[in-house]
Fold this protein.
Amino acid sequence: MVLAARLTGAGAGFLTQLLLARLLSPEELGVFFWATSLAAVLGLVTAWGYPNIAARYLSRYRERERPDRAAAFLRRASRDSYWAGLAAGTVVLGGALLWTDASFETRLAFA
């Protein structure tokens, strides 16, 4: 099922890219891909790697019957990701507002 879900998602993403390539001008498409790539990279950075280690630690805490540690892990991951996301969002928004030689639409896409 996971393989089918990934293939379906990849197919939907491919069809979406084809549709966008037909509907948008090259400049608009470039801005779209640049903004979504920035969002994807910042999403990985602001997660601090917690999604990659969550399965290991949460299963270990559950196996040892330590729900308090599992809850603490989730609280810490949420708090760290929240503050990192807020900081990254503030930097990107500030950059978009101060980017004077870009069009309004480009700045809006990044904001």
Q: What stands out?
A: The mean pLDDT is 89. The two ends are 36 Å apart (CA to CA). The CA atoms of residues 28 and 106 lie 8 Å apart.
